């Protein structure tokens, strides 16, 4: 099976981690076995064999540890072969343990199955076939031990092991059949599930690749959209400026006398040109905010003065609807901001309130100075916003439904989104609090300026 360079590096790291883990587990097993042997009482035969087994496991594990530490760089094939070799030695150690503890009477037969399971830990690599290798050597070593016992080549260390040759043959035959079937059935089951997981991993990897490709495509499309909006906005500004200039010439009577009807049409045309210019500016600002390219000209600014200027600027519009427009601000609150952009936020929030509340209402603009930041709010006593619509307030191109008795406000639903972007690039946050029938309160925060700057 061919792997990409990245996949092979991941697999090599995975196998190395498993080899390192197995080496330290063997050290723990050797230490635990030594402690238990110290607490136990065996005759000389058991003691010598047990010590020999512990020494055998410690020796090959220490050599493997040294070799693994010295060989820093190794191929995937080498690492898998090295891991399989250590597992085969583990199978041999388990076989010796079973022989010491009574052969067919040993309670440690299950350790073969444990090793088969451990060999299946590499379920995401070609080492999944290792389960059959370990099953094969487990069968060979176990049956070989039984055969040597039957032939009398090795003595049996089991107090209750007194069987005739026929009984021993029957026992060994049954064990051989049971062991072979059990080991390979167990190995096949683990291999099946490892392949199933491997298949699911490949499917997940494929879907992840498709997802990443879609994300890249969406980013490219979004970039193209931003570039188009930016280019279109710039290109349309020139003809708009020319149209404005031509309208001014006509209004001033440069090209001839203008009658009352023509004057009304010119006023309407200028209003629509101004609206179109505002839309283009908003689209351009949205594009800059998305691209993180909005250039701020920061300066130490009195936020209270900005608030008062915004209130004064919109006072005529508020008065036209008989709306009380008040400000509650400290004498001076210094912040490090782009004054033009923050003034724009003030104007947009106050203007929105004027548009969306009925006549004879009230709007309050306030500033509260904290230790590290300044909190600004624009509060009205209008109809409020429903919980469902509050979630949509800062969404682009979303127009919230208002009181049918009020004149529908003009716009494309970009103002609040732009305000949010402006506040965030200043390191602050913009949020809204509102309940139906209880008015609306927009709040934004700005970090305070260091007076020593």
Structural notes for this entry:
The chain is of the alpha+beta class and 453 residues long. Among the domains are: 5-162, no CATH class; 299-447, Histidine kinase-like ATPase, C-terminal domain (Heat Shock Protein 90, 2-Layer Sandwich), CATH 3.30.565. 64% of the residues lie in helices and 9% in strands. The chain has eleven helices and seven strands. It has helices at 5-39, 44-70, 76-100, 110-119, 130-151, 165-251, 260-290, 303-320, 339-356, 387-390, 415-425, and strands spanning 299-302, 324-328, 334-337, 362-369, 373-380, 430-434, 440-447. The strands form two sheets. It has a five-stranded mixed beta sheet with strand order 2-4-5-7-6. A two-stranded antiparallel ribbon has the order 1-3. A hairpin with a 3-residue loop joins β4 (362-369) and β5. α4 (110-119) runs antiparallel to α5 (130-151) and α4 packs parallel to α6 (165-251). The longest helix is centred in the middle third of the chain and has 87 residues, at 165-251. The protein is elongated and about 130 Å long. The model has no long low-confidence stretch (mean pLDDT 82).
Question: How much helicity do the residues have?
Answer: 55-70%
The low-confidence parts are none
Strand content: 5-15%
The ordered H/E elements are: HHHHHHHEHEEHEEHHEE
Q: Give the strand line-up of the largest sheet.
A: 2-4-5-7-6
The counted number of beta strands is: 7
Pfam families: HATPase_c, HisKA
EC number: 2.7.13.3
GO molecular function: ATP binding; phosphorelay sensor kinase activity
InterPro entries: HATPase_C_sf, HATPase_dom, His_kinase_dom, HisK_dim/P_dom, HisK_dim/P_sf, Sensor_HK_Regulatory, Sig_transdc_His_kin-like_C
């Amino acid at each position: 099976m061919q792997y990409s360079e990245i996949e092979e590096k991941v697999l090599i790291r995975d196998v190395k981690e498993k080899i390192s883990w197995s080496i330290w587990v063997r050290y723990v097993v050797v230490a635990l076995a030594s402690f238990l042997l110290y607490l136990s009482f065996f005759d000389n035969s058991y003691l010598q064999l047990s010590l020999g087994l512990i020494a055998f496991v410690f020796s090959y594990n220490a050599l493997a540890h040294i070799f693994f530490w010295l060989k820093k760089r190794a191929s995937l094939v080498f690492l898998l072969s090295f891991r399989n070799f250590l597992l085969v030695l583990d199978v041999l150690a388990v076989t010796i343990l079973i022989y010491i503890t009574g052969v067919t009477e040993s309670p440690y037969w299950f350790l073969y199955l444990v090793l088969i399971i451990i060999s299946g830990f590499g379920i995401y690599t070609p080492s999944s076939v290792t389960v059959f290798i370990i099953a094969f050597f487990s069968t060979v070593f176990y049956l070989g031990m039984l055969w040597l016992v039957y032939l009398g080549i090795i003595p049996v260390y089991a107090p209750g092991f007194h069987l005739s040759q026929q009984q021993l043959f029957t026992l060994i035959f049954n064990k051989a059949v049971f062991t072979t079937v059990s080991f390979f059935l167990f190995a096949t089951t683990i291999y099946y599930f490892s392949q199933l997981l491997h298949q699911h991993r490949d499917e997940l990897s494929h879907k992840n690749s498709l997802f990443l490709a879609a994300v890249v495509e969406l980013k490219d499309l979004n970039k193209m959209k931003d570039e188009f909006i930016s280019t279109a906005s710039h290109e349309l500004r020139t003809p708009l400026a020319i149209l404005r200039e031509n309208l001014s010439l006509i209004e001033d009577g440069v090209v001839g006398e203008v009658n009352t009807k023509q004057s009304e049409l010119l006023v309407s045309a200028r209003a629509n040109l101004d609206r179109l210019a505002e839309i283009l500016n908003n689209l351009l600002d949205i594009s800059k905010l998305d691209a993180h390219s909005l250039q701020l000209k920061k300066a130490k600014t009195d936020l209270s003065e900005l608030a008062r200027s915004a209130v004064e600027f919109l006072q005529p519009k508020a008065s036209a609807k008989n709306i009380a427009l008040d400000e509650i601000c400290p004498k001076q609150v210094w912040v490090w901001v782009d004054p033009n952009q923050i003034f724009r936020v003030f104007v947009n929030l106050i203007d929105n309130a004027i548009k969306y509340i009925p006549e004879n209402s009230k709007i309050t603009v306030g500033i509260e100075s904290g230790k590290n930041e300044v909190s600004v709010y624009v509060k009205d006593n209008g109809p409020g916003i429903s919980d469902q619509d509050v979630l949509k307030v800062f969404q682009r191109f979303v127009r919230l439904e208002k009181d049918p008795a009020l004149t529908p406000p003009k716009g494309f639903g970009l103002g609040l989104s732009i305000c949010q972007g402006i506040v965030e690039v200043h390191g602050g946050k913009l949020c809204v609090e509102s309940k139906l029938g209880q008015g609306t309160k927009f709040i934004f925060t700005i970090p305070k300026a260091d007076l020593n700057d």
